[in-house]
C-alpha cells in the first residue's frame, strides 16, 4: 500500500482530471473519456497496477464515469433544442450493440493493442478537425439505412475500445455530412449515453475475477475512481455546454484537434518511447 501522502496526490490528480473531463464533456460532447483514460493509465501505473489489466481498467472505469456525465450533458444540450433525436432513435440498438461487442473484443486483446487503437483513432480525428475544408463532405445529409445503422455499430465498437463517449467519432461523422458542429456536439452527448451504459456492464463481465485488479473493483471498473470523479464531472459539465455555445465552429474544431493530438502522442510514447 502506497503512503497516505502519495494516495492524496493521486486523489488530487484524479480530482483535477475530473474537472477537465467534465468541461470537455460539455464543450465537445465527448463524455470526458479522452482525458480520463490516459490519466487513469498513468495513475494506475503509479499505484503499481499490473500492466496486463492497466489499460483495460482505465477504459472500463472511464465508461462507468461517462454514464452520469453524458446524461447530464445530453439533458443540458436537449434543453437548447439542438440534439438530432431522429439519429439517436435510429441508433438505439446499433450503438449499444457496438459497445457490447467492444467489451467482448477487449477481453481478448492486450493493453498495447488498446493503446494503439486509441492513438490511431485520435490522430485520424485530429487531422480531420485541424485541416478541415468546406469541400470535405461525403454528402449533404446523413446516409440512409443500413449505412447509417452500421456506422452506429462501428462508433459503438471503436468508442467502447477507447473508453470514450463516442463524440470524437460522431462529431466527425455528422460534420462530414454537412451537419453543424454544435448539433454534432449536442447529439454526441446522447451517443455517450448509448455507449457508456452497455459498455459499463460489458467491462464488468470482461474483467470478472481476473487477478491484478485493485481493491474495490468489479471487473474492469474501479469504484474508488468512479466515486471520486463523478460528482466533479457532473458539477462542471454544464459549464462546458455554455462555453460550446459561445464559441464558433472553427474554434471548436481547432481546440478539439489539438487536444486529440496531445492524447495520441501520450499513448504512442507509452508504446514506442
UniProtKB/TrEMBL annotation:
<feature type="transmembrane region" description="Helical">
    <location>
        <begin position="185"/>
        <end position="208"/>
    </location>
</feature>
<dbReference type="Pfam" id="PF01925">
    <property type="entry name" value="TauE"/>
</dbReference>
<feature type="transmembrane region" description="Helical">
    <location>
        <begin position="87"/>
        <end position="106"/>
    </location>
</feature>
<keyword id="KW-1133">Transmembrane helix</keyword>
<feature type="transmembrane region" description="Helical">
    <location>
        <begin position="220"/>
        <end position="240"/>
    </location>
</feature>
<feature type="transmembrane region" description="Helical">
    <location>
        <begin position="252"/>
        <end position="272"/>
    </location>
</feature>
<feature type="transmembrane region" description="Helical">
    <location>
        <begin position="53"/>
        <end position="75"/>
    </location>
</feature>
<comment type="similarity">
    <text>Belongs to the 4-toluene sulfonate uptake permease (TSUP) (TC 2.A.102) family.</text>
</comment>
<feature type="transmembrane region" description="Helical">
    <location>
        <begin position="12"/>
        <end position="41"/>
    </location>
</feature>
<keyword id="KW-0812">Transmembrane</keyword>
<feature type="transmembrane region" description="Helical">
    <location>
        <begin position="113"/>
        <end position="131"/>
    </location>
</feature>
<protein>
    <recommendedName>
        <fullName>Probable membrane transporter protein</fullName>
    </recommendedName>
</protein>
<dbReference type="InterPro" id="IPR002781">
    <property type="entry name" value="TM_pro_TauE-like"/>
</dbReference>
<keyword id="KW-1003">Cell membrane</keyword>
<keyword id="KW-0472">Membrane</keyword>
<dbReference type="GO" id="GO:0005886">
    <property type="term" value="C:plasma membrane"/>
</dbReference>
<feature type="transmembrane region" description="Helical">
    <location>
        <begin position="151"/>
        <end position="173"/>
    </location>
</feature>
